[in-house]
Amino acid sequence: MVFAPGHPHVARLAVFASALVFAAPVSAEEWTLEDCRTSARNQHPEVAAARALTAAAAARRAIAFSGFLPRASAQGSYLAGRGAGASGGGLIGAGGTVGQLPAGAVGGSGTFFGPPDFELWTASLSLQQTIWDFGRSLNRYRQAQAEARQALARQQLVEELLDVAAEAAYRTALASDELVTAMEESRRQARAHLELARGRAEVGLAAPYDLSRAEVEVAQAEVRVIQAKNARDLAMAQLAIACGLETLPEGARLAEAPPRPVPELPSLDEAVQAAMEALPEMREARAAVEAAERAYASAVSELFPSLGVTGTASLRGREFDHMQPGWTAVVSLSVPIVNGGADLATIRERRAQLAAAQAEYERLRRALRLDIETALLAVQEASARLAAAEAMERSAAEGLLLAEGRYQTGLGSALELADAQSQLATARAERVQSALDLSISLARFERLLGRWSDG
After folding, report:
1. Is 254 helix (H, G, I), strand (E, B) or coil?
2. What is the model's pLDDT at position 85?
3. In CATH, which superfamily holds the domain spanning 8-82+116-454?
4. Strands 30-31, 253-254: parallel, antiparallel or unpaired by DSSP?
5. How far apart are CA 20 and CA 53, in angstroms?
6. Taking the mean position of all CA atoms in its chain, how far away is CA 169?
7. At residue 169, does pLDDT exceed 90?
8. Is the model's pTM score more than 0.70?
9. What are the boundaries of each domain within the chain?
């Protein structure tokens, strides 16, 4: 990659992260790669949202499990009537006639004010338990279980993607700083060449063109330094975003991060097989299919009867301290007959959702092979580019030494010297960029293989 004045690829040194969270920076002297990844996991809003969805799915699982457990409720009431309100066949409560007037009190007192003609105290405790609903509760619970696993896999995926983004941003910031150093060294060499050309021109050993050419080289080196510093500032700002911060800690220095070692690359089929089992996005897709299957089975089970039992123990009396005990027990069988077609429509909806989940899983499975093949080729390409860039940098450094010697002895031209200097600057920039590309490609490839926890 050539970092000549105005070259568009200088901006490639910046890696864009996903979201911005306004968190207060913490004072620190050294900021490591692990610090950045930890900060992203603790403070990034995407992680917070994913964890909240996981907690909500766990709560829904607990709600679904409650369908297996008995339901208990307690009720108490006090009824009082006077005058016409206490006459008639009895006192009507929320559950029907709950008490009859005593003999001789059919007409009531006939006046509005005064003590009640009739009082009734009741207290009851009810217990309900579903005996069997033909898999309705079981399928709902298993659906909730699958949805909880799906949410957990989604959370892990978000965390891994943020880890990769944080590492890419961190290594980009380090590379941009290294590039600034390389461009400043190139500027120093250009200024030394300008002084050499100026001295030779003063004694008549160099043409005026040599001096103007050296001045152009200094100006171009200045432009490259400015571009590299701008890229570094942008990379640092984006590093803060990737780490879940508004700005990096005050006075923080980036610690060196050793490059990722190049592992023994597996075959494409081996990589796909490992990714199918380990990747959180594939686990999420499988859980989505299972949840859709259970939702469909639950909808079908709504067509079948439900068997349950209800028991109630009660106390009732006209005086609080003279209530009489009693109990009732009911075994009920509920058989759905007609629901306006809503149950059948729900079954069709769940069947369509299942088909959609299965299609999405198949799409991910097919795309995974292409993603892994692309990542594998990217690692191979970056590794080869780095080896070539290192060789090119060594050759360019030797070429510059030779060009400087030829120019000092009068055998070389200013154009030859300028070309050698430009080639060295380009080779240095290409070596920095190739090393960065290799590290980022390896990080993405390791994640696709499901080895991210080992990275």
Report:
1. strand
2. 58
3. Outer membrane efflux proteins (OEP) (1.20.1600.10)
4. parallel
5. 20
6. 17
7. yes
8. yes
9. 8-82+116-454
